[in-house]
Amino acid sequence: MSRRAFIGATALALGAPALALDVGETDWAALGEDVKAEMRWAWGNYRARAWGKDDFLPVSGGARAFPLRDRHLGLSLIEAMDTLWLMALDEEFADALGWVRANLDFDVDGELSVFETSIRLVGGLLSAHLACGDPVLLDRARDLTDRLLPAFDTPTGIPYRYVNLRTGAVRDPATNPAETGTYIAEYGTLSRLTGDERYLNAAKRALVAMFELRSPLGLLADRIDARTGQWLSRRATVGPPSDSFYEYCWDGWQLFGDAGCKAMYDTLTTAILDHQAVRHEGARWFADVDFETGAPLSTEQDELASFYGGLLAQGGAVAEGAAYTRAWAAVQTRFGILPEGYDYATGEPTIRTNALRPELADAAFNLWLLDRSDEWRLIARDHYLAMKRWNRARYGYTDMADVVTKRQADHCPGYWWSEQMKYYYLMFADCPRFDYRDNYLSTEGNVLKGLRTSP
Ligand code: DMJ
User: Fold this and answer.
1) Any idea where the domains of the chain sit in the sequence?
2) How does pLDDT run across 79-108, given as a tens digit for each residue?
3) Which class in CATH covers the domain with range 9-449?
4) Which of ligand 1's atoms lies nearest the C-alpha of 303?
5) Where is average pLDDT lowest: 1-5, 212-216, 272-276, 399-403?
6) 425 Cα: distance to centroid of ligand 1 (angstroms)
7) What is the pTM of this model?
8) What does the angle CA 441 – CA 444 – CA 447 come to, to the nearest 5 degrees?
């Protein structure tokens, strides 16, 4: 059987998804080539039908603006760039760079999310700059971040959620941990590259401000007023909208050696393991609890929380991280694609959509980087093959409207180009442009350390 035929046969076998194949049956190099071929195919369709647009609609061939409401900023293109570069799709990368040079302009009278714009556009421009060294990419990242910084000008240092790119007008102080603390990787990198400390300082101030507001148990709630620092909710969760706050405490240490960030990560993680970790039918889960009393609030899990096993392992709690990832992998085995919401007490999906999510592949990637066990590559392989089986549409890969009936929606989020396609490729292929021993990937999968520019 040819390599391609083998992969196809495996995908078909996933009609009744199960971790049925052992390691010896998987040709990892062929699978890596397959990921690259799918990336090139989807890119070609985006290039032909939605060039320079934000989110691609792979069923209809249309596009949707994001993070601005009615103006495109080339989001998918920018999110894809370092993945294209790692895959040595150099013509495609050069094409994207040409578009940035000719078209990317942030002087727009429009309001966007400070968080989404930072992790996707600032991060995407910075990783593309680190890949090729082109100063235009750094210049655009700096211009964009200068336009975001007014949001951080609050009494607490916790940013407003939205800012107008041209006027600097801010809106919506009712924010959350992820939108408070997911800046240090991108802004710290920008400070390092420009010598201007304002970016790193704004990011760190916000991170510390929220950490200082933790409860006596050491837990964070999930809604807060940026102007006063008053909590607006009581729920502590490792899922959204708190998830990447914890990630960036660790990342400040991993990327910059900031011991203060590590201390914050350790304090918060100890509290989470003490008050949120539960076992249900032998599986590890993290319950939502009251941040001051630790009382359980919910057994529902958000799919986005499945990244957390990788973070726990990176931070040293390897057994806990592995156990949590195994719990999610079992849900993947059952449904093929993870539902957006899942209740571990009932074993049923609570939200049956899936927005083409990368989190389980992200966790598998981080665990695999630590121990190179094929257990994690098999989880990522099944994630990939299930995606090929059910999310593949006429022009690319799409969200699911229902993971139980396998009904497709019509939307490819920008992170698909930056996250899972990169995780799969780096795990399956032996990529000479990536330093497997010393690297850093942001919450959006942007490589901010570990790009090998010589080969
Ligand atoms: C990505 O934009 C980032 O990973 C973010 O931190 C939350 N999750 C989405 C993808 O699901």
Assistant:
1) 9-449
2) 999 999 999 999 999 999 999 999 999 999
3) mainly alpha
4) 11
5) 1-5
6) 18
7) 0.95
8) 30
